[in-house]
Amino acid sequence: xxxxxxxxxxxxxxxxxxxxxxxxxxxxxxxxxxxxxxxxxxxxxxxxxxxxxxxxxxxxxxxxxxxxxxxxxxxxxxxxxxxxxxxxxxxxxxxxxxxxxxxxxxxxxxxxxxxxxxxxxxxxxxxxxxxxxxxxxxxxxxxxxxxxxxxxxxxxxxxxxxxxxxxxxxxxxxxxxxxxxxxxxxxxxxxxxxxxxxxxxxxxxxxxxxxxxxxxxxxxxxxxxxxxxxxxxxxxxxxxxxxxxxxxxxxxxxxxxxxxxxxxxxxxxxxxxxxxxxxxxxxxxxxxxxxxxxxxxxxxxxxxxxxxxxxxxxxxxxxxxxxx
Length: 324
Ligand code: BTN
Fold this sequence. Notes:
Elements: H1 2-12, H2 20-27, H3 31-43, E1 47-51, E2 55-60, H4 67-70, E3 83-86, H5 92-101, E4 109-112, E5 134-140, H6 149-168, E6 173-175, E7 179-182, E8 185-196, E9 201-210, H7 221-224, H8 230-234, H9 240-261, H10 263-274, E10 280-285, E11 288-297, E12 303-306, E13 312-315, E14 319-323
Helix pairs in contact: 2-3, 6-9, 6-10, 9-10
Bound molecules: biotin.
C-alpha cells in the first residue's frame, strides 16, 4: 500500500523533486520509513533520484506488472482490485486455483512475469519467457450450473479480442473455441479451469496468455510459423501494463453482460468475432479426425460440424484447422 502511495505522489511531480519531509507527512510515517520503501522500489527497477536537500524524484518506472504500476491504471470497479504478483511462477492458473481453493474472492487476479510450466489447452505447454508478454489468471465465482461454464470461456475470448483490437487497431479472429489469431497466426490463448459440484460452479480460473512484445525469432522453432505477437503485427512495442488495464476493463464489462443479460448476447458477439459459419474445417478431437462444414456453436458453446455425408457432430473439445 505504502509503495503505491509513494509512487502515486512521485508521479504527480514528473519533473520535480518531492521532499522526504512532505512524503513522510503525507504518508504519516517517519522519513527513515520512506527511505526504506524507496530502497525497496529501487530494487524493483524504479529509477529514483535521492538528494538530501531536495528529496526524491522518480526518473523512470520499469516495465513491470507489479500492483504498484497496475493499480494506478485500473479502470475497473472490482476486477483486479486484489493482485497477486510474482516475478516467476510455474503457472498462474495453478496458483490461482490454489488461492481460490483457499477462499480467494471473485475478481482476484494472479500475474506472473514468467512461467516455468505455463499450461496450454489439451495438455500442451504455453511458452512464457520473462517480461515480454502477459500471463494472467482471474478468479471468478459465477452462480451458474457447470454446463454453462464454457460460455465463460467464449465470453473471455470476446473480451480478449476486443482488448487486442482496441490496443492494436487490428481486427483479430477467434478460432473455436478460444484461440485469438491475427493474420492466421495465434497471438493469444485461453485456458479455463473449473471446480464445480454437481449443480453449481464453485469457481472458474480464467487463464489468459497474450504474446505482446516477443520477437518472432524468440519463439521455439515448432511454433515460430504459427505464433505471433502484438509487436510483430503492429511493428511497435506495446505497453504491457496499459494492455493489462484494458483487458481487465473488457473482462469486467463482458462478464457483467453475461451475468445480467445471459449467454445469448455473448454467443452473438462471439459469432461476429469468429466468422465460423460455413467454413470448411478439419477437426481433431480425442485422436479422431473429422472433416466438414462448420454449422454454428450451440447454446453451450459446442461446435456443430456437418460431415460430407450430411451427418451432424457436436464437438465439445479439440482443435480445428480451417481449410480454404
Ligand atoms: C492455449 O493453449 O491456447 C491456452 C493457453 C493459456 C495460457 C495462459 S498463460 C496464463 C495462464 N496460466 C497458465 O498456466 N496458462 C494460462
